[in-house]
Amino acid sequence: MKVKDQLILEAFGESSFPIQDVERIEDVCIHVVDASGKIICYSKGCEIIENMKHEDVIGKNMSDIYDYLENESMESLVLKTGKKVQDVHVKYTSPSGKVADVISSTYPVFSKNDPKKVDAAICIYRDISDYIHMANTINKLQNDLKSQQLKNNGTQFTFKDIIGTSTHMAECVRHAEIAAQTTAPILIAGPTGTGKEVFAQSIHNASPQANKLFVAINCSAIPENLLESTLFGTVKGSFTGAVDSVGLLETAEGGTIFLDEINSMHMGLQSKLLRVLETGKYRKVGGHKEITANIRLLSALNQDPLKAIEEKRLRSDLYYRLAVFSIHLPPLKDRKQDILDLVPSFLSTEGSAMGKQLFKVSDEAQEILLSHDWPGNIRELKHAVTHAIYIAQYQDTILTPDLLPAYLRKNIADKKIYEKYLSASMDDKNLKNTLNKIEKQMIIDVLQANDHNISKSSRDLGISRQNLQYKIRLHGIKSSDDEL
């Protein structure tokens, strides 16, 4: 009898059934390794969970084919200690790239000749990814319910929804949490897509006014002649077709009004808003009665405030009133560490909604994501991840470069070309010399990649055979790798 069969028989007791019957079991995984860590039994259940074939695993050392995401494998631990380990939650990546989420129990198999010697370890485990998915779905439903409750005040975000561990983001959140406890106006500045309204809603929900309404308005989205009546309301007869209407300041009574892109508001209206801040009162358009404004004012703009003042898009006196607290959200390119936090979050939330299970980002895809400058910031990043989820197949578990938008892949390719061909030539200020160096190196690289096949190389370079042969002679490029 083979050593492997003897060890398995000892593990299950001296049973009469053949070992092949053990490996046909589908309901649970049975995985046995010998004292050296070599896999000697691999059931059908293991193949299903790990998306592997029996013949690709048997006889190999488990440390060579498995990538454990947390601690060492349970089999290794049992082989070392000789103690059983039961009901352990283990998460690992199989060689197929599938992330397995299992509950595992592992038992030692002791030598008949030496009761203290461990000859093998048998691991029995069951896939719990469906249960995890169900738990995540329940959590999502609970969070959606909480969000729905928050939506009663016009919001859906709190500070818990702000993702990012970078120093920049932690500082912004800290300042916002302090500001939330005051009634002072707050100005949030940052490029488009950095999450200014998420911060504004979070501040409101952490403030004493959280149970009151949060009313938001994008000043750039409303025509200039309508913005004043939208904010202050109107009195019937104040202009042709005017009716008695409630403005947003009155709607937000006791709560918070958020004026986004306030640098789009014309200067005349800015002066009226300044008066509201200074006196706490306002009049409807066409009205004579002063109304008390019992509101918290938050505002945002998508450029540097001082530059907006210089360009006469923001009154300086209004700025000093709006920015009692000032929070500057940095662009994503200045806090790329946060990309590594944001992408898994988007994969989880957006993937669950689409029934996809992309758990991991490949190293190549991560390189592409980190190399891009993200001019659209978080909004653009979310778009890229959502695009990947839509493109992915239902069995895919890893976000790979081919799932990302084509322009991201092109960007990194262009950067690599620059690094390879241009950066090394930047010290030479002579344009002709620089272009000749780049052309020569590109031709050498393409020739080497094509084993010096002139026809294929000329096609790859987008020039004729004759032109390529002329350039080879011009640059003195030799015909073999050794001579280059």
Q: How is this structure best described in words?
A:
- By secondary structure, the protein is of the alpha/beta class.
- It contains 21 helices and 17 strands.
- The protein has helices at 3-12, 19-23, 44-50, 54-57, 62-65, 74-81, 129-151, 167-180, 196-205, 224-232, 248-251, 267-279, 305-310, 316-322, 339-354, 363-371, 377-391, 406-422, 431-449, 454-461, 465-475; strands at residues 29-34, 39-42, 67-68, 85-93, 99-110, 118-127, 186-189, 214-218, 233-234, 245-246, 256-260, 281-283, 290-292, 296-301, 325-328, 360-361, 398-399.
- The strands form five sheets. It has a six-stranded antiparallel sheet.
- Strand 1 (29-34) and strand 2 (39-42) form a beta hairpin.
- Helix 8 packs across helix 9, helix 12 crosses helix 14 (316-322) and helix 20 packs across helix 21 (465-475).
- It starts with a helix and ends in a 9-residue tail after the last helix.
- The model has no long low-confidence stretch (mean pLDDT 84).
Biggest sheet: strands, sense, closure?
A: 6 strands, antiparallel
Note the total helix count. 21
Strand arrangement within the widest β-sheet reads 2-1-6-5-4-3
Strand residue content = 15-25%
Fold topology:
Blueprint: H1 3-12, H2 19-23, E1 29-34, E2 39-42, H3 44-50, H4 54-57, H5 62-65, E3 67-68, H6 74-81, E4 85-93, E5 99-110, E6 118-127, H7 129-151, H8 167-180, E7 186-189, H9 196-205, E8 214-218, H10 224-232, E9 233-234, E10 245-246, H11 248-251, E11 256-260, H12 267-279, E12 281-283, E13 290-292, E14 296-301, H13 305-310, H14 316-322, E15 325-328, H15 339-354, E16 360-361, H16 363-371, H17 377-391, E17 398-399, H18 406-422, H19 431-449, H20 454-461, H21 465-475
Parallel strand pairs: 7-14, 7-15, 8-11, 11-14, 16-17
Antiparallel strand pairs: 1-2, 1-6, 3-4, 4-5, 5-6, 9-10, 12-13
Helix pairs in contact: 8-9, 12-14, 15-17, 16-18, 19-20, 20-21
